[in-house]
Amino acid sequence: MADIKQVLVPDIGDYKDVSVIEVMVKAGDKISAEDNLITLETDKAAMEVPSPFSGVVKEMKVKTGDKVSQGSVILTMECADSSDGTTSHSTKLSNDDSQVAGYAPVKSGDTSPQISERGNAPSPVGAGHARDQTVRGHGPLLQQPNAAVAPVAVQIPQPDATGGKAHASPGIRRFARELGVEIAQVKGSGEKGRVTKDDVQNFVKAALAQPRGTAGGNGLQVLAMPVVDFARFGAIETRPLSRIRKISGANLHRNWVTIPHVTQFDEADITEMEAFRKELNVEYAKQNIKITPLAFMLKAVVVALQQFPEFNASLDAGGENLVLKQYFHIGVAVDTPDGLMVPVLRDVDKKGIVQLAKELGEVSAKAREKKITAAEMQGGCFSISSLGGIGGTAFTPIINAPELAILGVSKAIIKPMHQDDTFVARLMLPLSLSYDHRVIDGAAAARFIVFLSQVLADTRRLAL
Ligand code: CAO
Description:
Blueprint (H helix, E strand, L loop, with lengths): L2 E6 L9 E6 L6 E2 L4 E6 L4 E5 L4 E6 L6 E2 L4 E7 L14 E2 L74 H9 L18 H13 L33 H16 L2 E9 L1 H14 L8 H15 L5 E3 L6 E3 L5 E3 L1 E3 L2 E3 L2 E2 L7 H16 L13 E5 L18 E5 L3 E7 L2 E15 L5 H16 L7
Parallel strand pairs: 13-17, 17-18
Antiparallel strand pairs: 1-8, 2-4, 2-7, 3-6, 4-5, 5-9, 6-8, 10-20, 11-12, 13-16, 14-15, 18-20, 19-20
This protein binds oxidized coenzyme A.
Oxidized coenzyme A binds next to helix 5, strand 14, helix 6 and strand 17.
C-alpha cells in the first residue's frame, strides 16, 4: 500500500540556513534509495543529500536558492512499500568537492530529524506516471557543463548516449569525481543499470588505453607549472576559488585545449537598430522592460543559424557525425560575483525582441542571485558572450562545447565610415565569432558573420 513519507534535511553538523544550490528531482520523478535529491552549499563545501527511500516524488518543498537547516522538509514521497527505505539508512552526505562534509549517518529507527518518514502526509499521488528523466547533473551547478562561455561557463555533464541519467551511490559519484570521470558517461552494469566501482575503473582503463592524442586531449604533454613561494617577493593574500570558478575553469581548459579555435571578427552597422531600440525603450519603460542590444543579437543569431544550419549543431560523442538541431536555444554568458554562468534562453526563434529582453533580465538576475538551476543551463545550441556594456574592442571567446561556435560582442562606438564618396558617422558594433575548425571552415565562418552583420544593419531582415 502506498505510503506518503517526508524526507528531511539530515544532520549537517553545525550548519544552519545552508543554501540549496541544486535540486536534482521534481514532482513525479521515480527515485531509488540513495539517488541524490539536492545539493547544499556551505561556505566550506557542497554536499549532496541522497534519498533514504525508493518511491515517487509527490511534492517538492524546496527550490534552488532556499535556505535549509537540519530537519527542513525537502520533499514528500509516495513509497510503494512502507517498509522500503526504513532500513536503508546508511545515508551519508557526499561532498562535491571531495571533502568530507559534516553529517551524521541516519540509523535505522532513528527518531532524530535526519530523514524521516510519515504516513500522514498529504493526499495520495494522482496519476502515477512516474517519469524517470530526472536531471542529475553533478558538478556544475552551472552548466554545461554547457558552461563557460568562454567565457562561458560551467557545464553539466551531458546525459549518456542512451539519453539516460547515471544511477550511482554518492560514494561511487565521489570516487568518479576523484578520478575526473563524469559519471553520466559511464555505462552502469549493476542492478537497474547502476554504476559500480568496477564500471568507473573500467571506464578509466579504457580511456587510458586509447592512443595518445585521441582521448579528449589526454595526449597533451606540457611542463608542470612552477611552484612559486610568492611570499618571498612581497605581502600576499590567499583566496580560495569559488566552486563555480573551479568548475567553469576545468570546462574552459578542456574546451580550449581540445577544440581548434579560430576567431573571425567583423563590425555591424547598428545605427538604425539603435534608433529603433531607443524608441522601444521609451515605449516599454512603463512596463519596466529594458531592451539592450543583446535582445536584438539573440534574434539575429537565430536568423543566421537558420541560414547556416551547420552552426546549429554538435559533433556526436564519437566525433563521426554532425548532429543538426532543429531547435534554437541560445546560451548567454552572465558575469556573476562567483564566476561565469551561462543560462540558456529556449526557443528564441519563437519569441519577439521584447519577450527576449524580459527573459534576459530575469535569467541574468537569477544567475547573479545563484538561483539558476542546472537544467536552465543545459541544451544550448550556440552562445553569446556580451562585454558590450563594459567596453573593449574585440576578444576571443572560448567555445562552450559541445556547441560549435560562440559570438563575442564588444562595445559599439561611433566611427567614420566611407559611404558614397564621403565619411559618415555610424554606430559600429564589434563582433568576434569563435568557431570549431574541425567542423566549420573559415569561409563558412566569414559568410556567417557577414550575414549576421547584415541582419543587424537592417533589422527588417529579422522578420524574413
Ligand atoms: N555596445 C554598447 N553598449 C552596450 C552594448 C554594446 N554592445 N551592450 C550593452 N550595452 C549597454 C546597454 O544598452 C546598457 O546601457 P544603458 O544602461 O545605458 O541602458 C549597458 O550597456 C549595460 O548593459 P548590460 O550589460 O546590463 O545588459 P546586456 O543585456 O547587454 O547584458 C548580461 C546582460 C547579463 C549579458 C551582462 O550583464 C553580462 O553579464 N555581461 C558579461 C558577460 C561576460 O562576462 N562575458 C565574458 C565571457 S568571457 O570570459
